Amino acid sequence: CEILSSLPLQMSLYFNVYFFPCWWLVTVAILYLKYPALSDYYKFILVTIMILVSLTELIRLYLGYVGNLLEKVPELAGFWLLTLLPQLPVILFLLFNEGLKIHSLERAAHIIFASFLSFQALAAFFTLRRMVNTLAARFRLTEFHRLEEQRPAPGAPCPATGSGS
Length: 165
Prior knowledge:
Elements lengths: L6 H28 L5 H30 L3 H24 L7 H47 L15
GO biological process, one term: non-motile cilium assembly
Keywords: Cell membrane, Cell projection, Cilium, Cilium biogenesis/degradation, Membrane, Transmembrane, Transmembrane helix
Subunit structure: Part of the tectonic-like complex (also named B9 complex).
């Protein structure tokens, strides 16, 4: 049995678990400081983003751990999709939107978080592809062996012909 989980992905997830609370604290502290200077719609957007990212990140990290360590394709696929769709675009929005009055510490935290997400998206894609290919090959071999066991031995009478003639 070949191990299909990815060590680089697991290391990235491990460090991300410890980095995320630091990122969250830095982002919330700077949001608190610049909140009065922001326009109303940016205030609403940033609060909504913080809630969305916080909830999604907890689910995403759990799915990444379970999918990678237990070699479960659906969980790893969910992790990959949550990385690509809500997380990466939101972090890139926080990083590149100059209307948010980005602080240098905040920019550094977003760059680190975006690099974690980018690496994890790539590593999860290749790990997921390897897992799916290996599991498909195992399924085909299992089906082949099952069909081989059901096939009658050479020279044995075929049960479909019957003995009525």
